[in-house]
Amino acid sequence: MTERIQEFLRARRREGRDNGPCLVVDLDVVRDNYRDFSRALPDTRVYYAVKANPAPEVLSLLASLGSSFDTASVAEIELALAAGASPERISFGNTIKKERDVARAYQLGVRLFAVDSEAEVEKIARVAPRSKVFCRILCDGSGAEWPLSRKFGCAPEMAPRVLELAQANGLIAYGLSFHVGSQQPNPRMWDKALESCANIFRELAERGVYLQMVNLGGGFPTRYLKSVPKVRIYGNAIFRALSKHFGNRLPETIIEPGRGMVGNAGIIEAEVVLISKKSDDDPLRWVFLDIGKFNGLAETTDEMIRYPIRTPVDGAAVGPCVIAGPSCDSVDILYEKTPYELPVSLEIGAKVLIEGTGAYTTTYSSIAFNGFPPLEAYVI
């Protein structure tokens, strides 16, 4: 929580605009995070993952600082271009793309595409000739709070065939990528994936295909309830792994921070709608907020992301609570398996602050489920 956000919320209340939950993002924090990434891996290009928070103000700031952009759709490509990024600073990093979207990206000037299958290579070869492609490989993402295995990437032993096909079809077999899982608390998880990449580099070089780049992915965490290592710790661990597996012939590298870039820059202010019990002898209170899974907190699914929640009466005696959202849907329960300890004196109508919500909230918010409007957002 920054003083700028606190003052913004105070002004919002004074002006009577606090009639629903809202997200406030502090650009000063985003700026500091970008500089931390740049210092931690000074020879690595930053490709901000637009999907984490595509607010135009965030993208414009990062573009002005020199960031490149990892995009998942044509719409995100257009947002990055509108923010001031040139096409050579944009990667179409989704491995699942319609051929017409590849063609549109190519028309917009994008020349860097992710693949993880031969069929995807063939699409790109048809409509985006002479583009660079990098192949995403599966890797171990154990320990991550939001795993990203299975759906994206191919087995490492399949990658050489995919990239050989790319080169045979007139594309530039540019490199490899992987993702160790979002909110990855272990800086050593990049080591094994880089070992696989180095092996693929050597295998393809023996066949006359010379790769240049390794996309180290995202995974860099933000702080929620648990402390996480500083970005420089990740940078040191990654550099050691690169040197260990590639020796003195280090490849070009890029990173795709999303959560780690904007997560701690945002705070959601919400309101307690109801506090109740399910029976007279129930030890748990149910605390219902005016925001839930369908209003931006989708990452509470299976309680994978556990956001810090601050109340006006912190420091008072606490008791266990189930926390739920406002919608008429039984899955709209945020935390039940592991109840939250909230003050016993918390009252209906109180404002609570949900910290670490700068990433993956506004874009997960539904348009009008149960008639609730999308999550209101402000960038300051």
TrEMBL record:
Limits of the Orn/DAP/Arg decarboxylase 2 N-terminal domain: 29-262
Cofactor(s) essential for the protein: pyridoxal 5'-phosphate
Reactions performed catalytically: L-ornithine + H(+) = putrescine + CO2
Its EC number(s): 4.1.1.17
Key word Lyase present: yes
Coiled coil: none
Signal peptide interval: none
Gene3D superfamilies assigned: Alanine racemase, Lyase, Ornithine Decarboxylase, Chain A, domain 1
GO cellular component, one term: cytoplasm
PROSITE patterns reported in the protein's UniProt record: ODR_DC_2_1
Residues forming the catalytic site: C328
Enzyme class: lyase
Annotated positions of the N6-(pyridoxal phosphate)lysine modification: K51
Keyword annotations from UniProtKB, A to Z: Lyase, Pyridoxal phosphate
Record bears the keyword Endoplasmic reticulum: no
GO biological process: putrescine biosynthetic process from arginine, via ornithine
Pathway: Amine and polyamine biosynthesis; putrescine biosynthesis via L-ornithine pathway; putrescine from L-ornithine: step 1/1
Gene Ontology molecular functions: ornithine decarboxylase activity
Family statement: Belongs to the Orn/Lys/Arg decarboxylase class-II family.
Protein's recorded name: ornithine decarboxylase
Organism: Methylocystis bryophila
